[in-house]
């Protein structure tokens, strides 16, 4: 993607103009615009559910299909509710005193809040079904990067969450970010937090015995996505309301929030590798 953008820039007299890429905010149905951001969430959740349903058919699954169905429903709620409340808490506290809190198209969603919401959903389904929490979380962790990748691509299509000013060949001018060319940091996030992590986790699940080491997939996911986010934040423009905070502390809010996740992810990974692997997965409760 970046090489194509660089080639496009070479054919023009100046930096790439995002407005000239022919991108639209969504599918215009006449009476309603189906936005790419909403479709990205939907695509990530549906693809994750489909892949989870395949995963539990492989040996060692800690759950049955009915549990996957419950997780699909409750994790969706966790993503939406947790993501929105997390954004209001960490990035725009004024939303707590406004009805705009319920307008998901105003402001944004927080990855950290969405992650917390998903953990609550996994905990509830695991408790209700008598399932091992960590092993269920392993299976969910493999599927989260699908949604991260689609979501960041949708941010790029929307021309939002742009990067810092830059002179790299693929830098571009975003309509609402002033005249300066900037890093397309949305694409960096889609690559690091999405595509790369998808490849790593799919390989670990399908080509190794990682599923038999409770917590290993969770640890790799947590450390990987946090490291990706921490790295990309060096190229991403801080939220306007938090620019002063980033200048004062030397790191953005996103980076401060990822540091505990990096430590936690490494610790969980080391613990999983230090403990004996399961000989086999226990039979899925309720499975025939």
TrEMBL record:
Recorded GO CC terms: plasma membrane
PROSITE patterns: LGT
Enzyme Commission (EC) number: 2.5.1.145
Pathway(s) annotated for this protein in UniProt: Protein modification; lipoprotein biosynthesis (diacylglyceryl transfer)
Record's keyword annotation contains Lyase: no
Residue ranges of the TM segments: 29-50, 71-90, 102-127, 139-157, 187-206, 215-235, 255-274
Keyword Transmembrane: yes
Topology with respect to the bilayer: Multi-pass membrane protein
Keyword vocabulary terms for this entry: Cell membrane, Lipoprotein, Membrane, Transferase, Transmembrane, Transmembrane helix
Subcellular location: Cell membrane
Binding locations of a 1,2-diacyl-sn-glycero-3-phospho-(1'-sn-glycerol): 152
Domain of life: Bacteria
Top-level enzyme category: transferase
InterPro entries according to UniProt: Lgt
A biological process from GO: lipoprotein biosynthetic process
Gene Ontology MF terms in the entry: phosphatidylglycerol-prolipoprotein diacylglyceryl transferase activity
Location, primary (coarse class): membrane
Function, as annotated: Catalyzes the transfer of the diacylglyceryl group from phosphatidylglycerol to the sulfhydryl group of the N-terminal cysteine of a prolipoprotein, the first step in the formation of mature lipoproteins.
Stated family: Belongs to the Lgt family.
Protein name: Phosphatidylglycerol--prolipoprotein diacylglyceryl transferase
